[in-house]
Amino acid sequence: MSENKGLVVCRLTGYGQTGALAHEAGHDINYVSITGLLPTISGHNTSRPWPPANLLADFAGGGLTAAFGIVAALLKREKNGGHGCIIDCSMSDGVSYLGSFVRRYQDMEHLWTRPFAAFSGDCPVYRAYKTKDGKWMAVGALEPKFSVSLFRRQNACVTPILELDEAVRFKHNVERKCFIKEGDEFFPQPAPRMYALEEYERLMSKL
């Protein structure tokens, strides 16, 4: 670079140019393992962690990040008078950055660790199912508008298990006015409900 100030050099390695593992050998599973993400992409922490082939570190955390860094360096060169730079691209760093969402929301049990959590691997509406012909299919009906539609009009005795705060917003409960709001709190509507014949017939005629 002393002879060509505009040169952009990308050094792509598993662990980066500095640090205790800088000169150590490794593969995709190793680069992912030190980020803390491997257990989160393998289901519950009671299961054995499974490596995601070599897609996560080699291609996403490494190749894709390196390509982005080179493009960013070329743009920077255009704006700083033609000076290049050296890019330290670590596959582990790239994977860790890709997992920002996981780290940011790691304490939300309903996403990761609670039984049937959304991304635990055993969530009924977000997992893989074996088919009759021995193959597999993926179900990603995570949002209620999708998961409910799986059983809508099937009369299959399937209902969501709601938290207390979810129950007050559930469509059936809202339409039936099952909860009364007083100030900032919701209270159950007294039961049973009693109607005069005329009032009941008028109510039923709207259905």
TrEMBL record:
UniProt record, GO biological process: bile acid metabolic process
Annotated Pfam families: CoA_transf_3 (PF02515)
SUPFAM superfamilies attached to this UniProt entry: CoA-transferase family III (CaiB/BaiF)
Leader sequence residues: none
Gene3D superfamilies the UniProt entry points to: Crotonobetainyl-coa:carnitine coa-transferase, domain 1, formyl-coa transferase, domain 3
Gene Ontology CC terms, in alphabetical order: mitochondrion
GO molecular function: alpha-methylacyl-CoA racemase activity
Family according to the record: Belongs to the CoA-transferase III family.
Name of this chain's protein: Alpha-methylacyl-CoA racemase
Taxonomic placement: Eukaryota, Metazoa, Ecdysozoa, Nematoda, Chromadorea
